[in-house]
Amino acid sequence: MTTVSERWVAKLRLADLPDHELTGQRVFVRVDFNVPVDETGSVEADARIRRSLPTLQRLREAGARSVLLSHLGRPGGRADPALSLKHVGERVSELLGSDVRFVEGVVGPQVVEAVEALEPGGFVLLENTRFHPGEKENDPELCRAWADLADLYVSDAFGSAHRAHASTVGLAEAVREAGGLAVAGALMDEEIRFLHEALDDPDRPFVAILGGAKISGKIDAVESFLPRVDRLLVGGAMANTFFRALGLETGASLVEEDRIEMARDVLERGGERIVLPVDCVVADAIESGVECRVVERSEIGPGDSVGDIGPATRRLFGEIIRDARTVVWNGPLGVFEIDEFAEGTMEVARHVAETSDEGTVTIVGGGDSAAAVDESGMADRIDHISTGGGAALELLSGASLPGIEALSDAEAARS
Ligand code: ADP
Ligand code: MG
After folding, report:
1. Rounded CA gap, 281 and 334, in Å?
2. Ligand 1 pocket test: which of 242, 340, 368, 393 has the largest number of ligand atoms within 8 Å of its C-beta?
3. Which end of the chain is more exposed for a tag (fewer CB within 10 A), N or C?
4. Contacts for 415 with CB less than 8 Å, ≥ 6 apart
5. Torsion sign over Cα 116, 125, 25, 147
6. What is the Cα–Cα distance from 377 to 354, expressed in whole angstroms?
7. Nearest protein Cα to ligand 1, atom 22
8. Ligand nearest to the CA of 280
C-alpha cells in the first residue's frame, strides 16, 4: 500500500514541464473561481482568483493557449444568469493584466471557435461548467468534446478535487486517453504539499477545530482526526448534535437528528480528547438585531436557538489553542455572518493567529472559514489558508482525491 503522500509525489506537475512543451499548446485549466458573488454576479471577494494567478502567469509566459474552466455555486445543470462567470472573467482580466475572452457557453460551436482563435499566451474563460448537466454526471460526451480541443490538462482547483465531475476528473482522463498529459497546477501543488508536510507527522499537541453547519459532511473527518489529534474542539451547529448525544436540550437549534447516534459513538471513543462548548450564545431566532443571552450548555431552553459559542468556551478553546503546536481549523464556530453571533469565531481566529506568531503550524480550510478569518483581519498571520474545505478534510482523513488520482504519473510521462 502506498500512502497518499507517496501517490501525490508520483504525480506530474506543471512545474515539471519545460516551456517548450507548453508553447502554442491548447491547455485546459480547471481553476477554482467559485467566489462569493452578489445577485448581479459581481465578485464580492477575489481571494480564490488571486490564488490561481501563478499557474496562469506561467502558462502565459510559456506561450500556452489557455482555456479556463470553473464552476460557480449550484445552478443545478441549467443556465442561471446570477451565477454566470462573466463578471468573474472581468476580474481575472484585471488581476492578470491580460485580456480574458469570456465565452457564453460550456461546449459547442462558440467554444470551438474561441479555442481555435486563441493566440499563444492568450486566455479564454468558458461559462460556469455547472450550467451543463453533464458536469456533475461526469458525462463522457462532454469530456470528449472538451478533450478534442485540448492538448494538455492542468488541475488547479483543489477545492473541487474531491468531486469526480467532468471538469475535474473525466476531462483529465479523456486528455490522457488521447495521448496528452494531465498535470497539477501551482496552487494544487502548494495546497497538497503544505497539508502533507504539516500533517503527516504533526508537531504536538495537534489540535483540530471543527465547526460549521453540518456534521454529516464532516463526520468522516471527525473519524479520521480522532485517532490522530490530541484535542478536537467542536463548535458551530455541529456541537448541537453532540449536545443531543449527551442528552441535553437544544431547543430550536440546528441539529442533525440522524447523526445523534454517530455523535454518541464518537464521544465514547474520543473521550477527553473531544472538547465541546461549555456555554452558548442563544436567541429566539438567528437573525440580525435579536436579543442574545449567554447560557450554560445545560440551560438551553425549548425556544432557544444556539448561534455561537459562549465566552467561557472561547477562553477554554483559547487555552488549548495556545498550547498547541499544530492547529487545523475547518468550520466557523457560530453564525459569523450575523454580528450578534460572530464573536466566538473572531476570538478563536485571534487565538489561532497568536499561536501562529509563536511558531505553531496553523491551517485554516473551507470557504466560509477562510471568509471568516479574512473578516477577522488575522489571515496574514495564519500559515496556510486552504481554498478547499471538503477536499482538505478528505485529504487529511487519508482519502485520495479523485481529481488527483486522474492526473498523469510522473513515471509514465517520462517513458
Ligand atoms: P466551511 O465553508 O468553512 O467548510 P461550512 O460550510 O461547513 O464551513 O459551515 C459554514 C456555515 O456554518 C456558516 O454559514 C455558519 O453560519 C454556519 N454555522 C456555524 N455555526 C452555526 C450554528 N450554531 N447554527 C447554524 N449555523 C451555523
Ligand atoms: Mg461552506
Report:
1. 9
2. 368
3. N
4. none
5. negative
6. 12
7. 237
8. 1
Nearest CA to ligand 1 atom 15: 335
Average pLDDT, the chain: 93
C-alpha cell at 140: 463522457
Per the annotation, the verdict on 60 as an active-site residue is no
CA–CA separation, 80 vs 116, rounded Å? 27
Decide: helix, strand or coil at residue 313.
helix
The residue annotated as part of the active site, out of 367, 388, 389, 403, is: 367
Task: Please state the separation of Cα 80 from the chain's center in Å.
Answer: 23
366 with 331: CB under 8 angstroms? yes
pTM of the model: 0.83
Q: Where do we find the cell 482580466? A: 93
Catalytic residue among 89, 134, 390, 403: 390
Q: What is the DSSP string of 273-301?
A: GEE--SEEEEESSSSTT---EEEEGGG--
Contacts of 25 (CB under 8 A, 6+ apart): 64, 65, 151, 152
Q: CA 297, CA 242: separation in Å to the nearest integer?
A: 11
Tell me how far the alpha carbon of residue 130 is from its chain's centroid: 17
pLDDT at residue 186 greater than cutoff 80: yes
Q: Percentages helix, strand, coil for the chain, rounded to the nearest 5?
A: 45, 15, 40
CA-closest candidate to residue 238, choices 223, 254, 250: 254
Q: What CA–CA distance (Å, rounded) separates 317 from 271?
A: 17
At 309-352, the pLDDT tens digits run 999 999 999 999 999 999 999 999 999 999 999 999 999 999 99
Amino acid identity, position 18: P
Would you state the cell numbers that stand for residue 167, as one nine-digit string?
471538469
- 26, 86, 214, 273: the active-site residue: 214
Q: What is the C-alpha to C-alpha distance for residues 49 and 254, in angstroms, rounded to an integer?
A: 33
Residue 51: closest CA among 173, 159, 144: 159
Give the pLDDT confidence of 231-252 residue by residue, as tens digits: 999 999 999 999 999 999 999 9
Q: How far is the CA of 234 from the centre of ligand 2 (A)?
A: 16
How remote is the CA of residue 146 from the centroid of ligand 2, in Å? 29
Distance 382 CA to ligand 1 centre (A): 20
Q: What distance in Å separates the CA atoms of residue 48 and residue 190, rounded to the nearest whole number?
A: 14
Beta pairing class for 293-296 and 279-283: antiparallel
H-helix or E-strand spanning residue 134: helix 133-137
Name the grid cell of 261: 447516534
DSSP structural state of residue 21: G
